[in-house]
Amino acid sequence: MKALLIDDERLARNELRRLLAAFPDIVIAGEAANAKQAREQLAALQPDLLFLDVQMPGQTGMELLESLEPPAPEVIFTTAYDEFAVKAFELNALDYLLKPVDPARLAAAVDKLRAKLNGAAGESAAEKSAARDRLAAEDKVFVREGDRCWFVEVKSIRLLESEGNYTRVHFENAQPQLFRSLNAMEERLDPKYFFRANRRQIINLSWIDKIEPWFSGGLLVHLKGGAKVELSRRQAQDFREKMSL
Amino acid sequence: MDSVLPTDVLFEDAARRERAKERLYVLCQSGGWLFLLGLQIVFVFALPSKTPANRDDQFLNVGIVAMVIMQGWLITHYTRPLMARWDWKALGWRALLPRILATSAVQSVVWTVIGYGYVYLVVGLPWTSKLPWFAATGLSIINGIMLLGGWLCVYFFYHLFDRLNRSEIERLRLATHVKEVELRALKSQVNPHFIFNSLNSLRALIDEDPARARQAVTQLSNLLRYSLQSGQLETVPFEDELRVVNDYLALEQVRHEERLTLRFDIDPDTLALPVPPMLLQTLVENAVKYGIATRPEGGEIAIIARRLDGALAIQVTNPGNLAAPAHAPARASSTGVGLRNAAERLRLLFGERASLQLRAEAPALVVAEALVPLHLTRA
Questions:
Q1: Phi (first) and psi of residue A61, to 5 degrees
Q2: What angle do CA B169, B170, B172 make, to 5 degrees?
Q3: Best exposed site among A62, B44, B190, B356 by fewest CB in 10 Å?
Q4: Residues A63-103 pLDDT 10s
């Protein structure tokens, strides 16, 4: 597993490096002291895992993640003391470590990560390398709104709605905005699961509850969770073709 | 730096209370006298006149009664500002009782003299009473004393009660204020984010540079001890505060390394002067947070202290702009609180002559300046 350490303090990075020496399967591929360096390192090293400090000069760790092209990498946050961040992590069950890092806590986080990667390895390793530009169902997208943040699994997204340069992502009980256009998202989504219903909306086909005929040859699609999406006649035709396959 | 000073709030409060009192007075004064007038008129008409033929007498009596009531109204109304000027509202019952008696006696004599004088001497109505004039006026004066004494008793009873009430409120307000100050003292302690980050760097330092690590443990202990203890002190010598700020900055340098450079320009005259504890610390922490921690390139923090006539001037500069970084709204407000608390403590201790301000100085330099008067002015 290739890891990238991102923290503005050299001593903090050293300390993490020392702690990670206990895990031979984690190879530290590089270090970055701020978001700008991190982006360069990410492009050059293609790491599997980030150890990411939340508070950094320039951009914060959250902002860095938000700006990355999905899918979001595996991330373990490190933070000294930040009530907001800790609350956000707890809400979304992301992994985070409090500095100074407790070695036992680090071991637990690494174990969790191993289990996850092994489980996903069978299907996604080949798939991922085959189509790096398409998001797989298990891939995650990092979304943040204010102090809350989520790693959303692509398959749990019911609906994406265009709002100018942003896209509103509907999943579970939340609908935060993603800093990407709907068109950019469409290019990344797997057409097997996602369908462009109209200019403004993309729906997840596996979340369809029922379909009814609508005005002038169109369709009205009800999604599980209550949203209704209109399809024009032309899109309805595409839709029928696609679904009849 | 606050838009609404607490004193303004107090004044506004007092003004509103005064207006409410004035309304209550007008209501009671008019209500009371009009009630009395109504009662008298009812008496005049209800009592079977001994000479029923004369209805004009009744109207004449109503006129006299109205005039007498009007006099009472005016006498009490104009006595009120006098009593306010003599500050009788601040007196206790024991001191008030003789004053009430004397005042009501004087008022009553004036009332009777004007009333009887006008009716019998100026207008010249015939004397119809069976009593001789001195007995009638004597009775009238005693009557007046009871009525006006009653008026005064109600008036002062209200004020005594109001004062009791207000002192209770004042006491409660003071108690909450003390609690608030204590709470703020707690909040002005060292930022936990800093403590844990320091501990983290310290742990790394143990392997890398054991001697420096030992030194850092000492510095962190000094800082924590100072921030815990100084909450109980009103002021500390500037020298003590400076020593702790030195420790704090040394720890920040362990964390930020070459990204943080320091410059001290301290006038030796200033070292013994009193400052509120954690004042400089708050300014410096703020400077590190905005000038260093948010900027990848870091920068220099300068501390300048001068003795001006009558005040100690402390300046802390850091690189950057005044506009809070847009990406850290939560943190921006938390320091805003720190600076505001520091400003308030400064004002509580030293009054309006103290000041604390943050200003931008071109190019890309932020200056925090505190003016601390040489003497406490608080009562």
A1: -60, -40
A2: 65
A3: B44
A4: 888 888 888 788 888 888 776 666 666 555 467 888 899 99
- Domain boundaries B188-373, corresponding CATH code: 3.30.565.10
SS3 of B68, please?
Answer: helix
> Residue B206's pLDDT band (boundaries 50, 70, 90)?
very high
Cβ atoms of B145 and B178 closer than 8 Å: no
B139: left (phi over 0), alpha (psi -120 to 50) or beta: alpha
pLDDT bin (cut points 50, 70, 90) of residue B327 is very low
**What are the chain A neighbours of B328 within 8 Å (beta carbons)?**
60
Residues of A with CB under 8 A from a CB of B: 8-12, 14-15, 18, 33-34, 36, 55, 57-60, 63, 80-82, 84, 98-101, 147
> Among all chains, which residue has been given the structure tokens 């069950």?
A93
| CATH 2.40.50.1020 at A140-244, yes or no | yes
Region of A132 please: left (phi>0), alpha (psi -120 to 50) or beta: alpha
CATH 3.40.640.10 matches A2-130? no
Residue B191 distance to chain A (closest CA, Å): 9
Q: How far is B21 from chain A (nearest CA, A)?
A: 49
- Name the residue ranges covered by the structural domains of chain A: 2-130, 140-244
Residue with the bigger pLDDT between B379 and B373: it is B373
Across the interface, do B195 and A81 touch by the CB < 8 Å criterion? yes
Instruction: Kindly report, residue by residue over A152-198, the tens digit of the pLDDT.
Output: 889 999 999 999 889 999 998 888 988 889 998 998 898 888 999 99
Q: What is the DSSP letter of B49?
A: P
Q: Does B100 touch chain A (CB under 8 A)?
A: no
CB contact under 8 A, B200 and A101: yes
Residue B302: burial class (beta carbons within 10 Å; 0-12, 13-18, 19+) = middle
B146 pLDDT band, cuts 50/70/90, is very high
Nearest CA to CA, how far is B1 from chain A (Å)?
27
List CB contacts of B198: < 8 A, sequence separation 6 or more: B216, B220, B251, B254, B255
Q: Which helix (H) or strand (E) holds B366?
A: strand B365-373
> Is the model's pTM score more than 0.80?
no
Query: What digits encode the pLDDT tens for the residues A10-51?
Result: 999 999 999 999 999 999 999 999 999 999 999 999 898 999
d(CA A10, CA B256): 8
Distance CA B43, CA B52 (A): 14
Render chain A in DSSP notation, one character per residue: -EEEEE-S-HHHHHHHHHHHTT-TT-EEEEEESSHHHHHHHHHHH--SEEEEESS-SSS-HHHHHHHSPSSPPEEEEEESS-HHHHHHHHHHT--EEESSPPHHHHHHHHHHHHHHHHHHHHHHHHHHHH-TTSPPTT-EEEEEETTEEEEEEGGGEEEEEEETTEEEEEETTB--EESS-HHHHHHHS-TTTEEE-SSSEEEEGGGEEEEEE-GGG-EEEEETTS-EEEE-HHHHHHHHHHHH-
Looking at chain A, how many residues does it have?
245
| Rg of chain A in Å (alpha carbons) | 20
Find residue B44's DSSP bridge partners.
none
Residue ranges with strand state E in B76-222: none
The residue type found at A128 is K
Question: Where do the domains of chain B lie?
Answer: 6-185, 188-373
A119-122: long-range contacts (C-beta < 8 A, 24 or more apart)? none
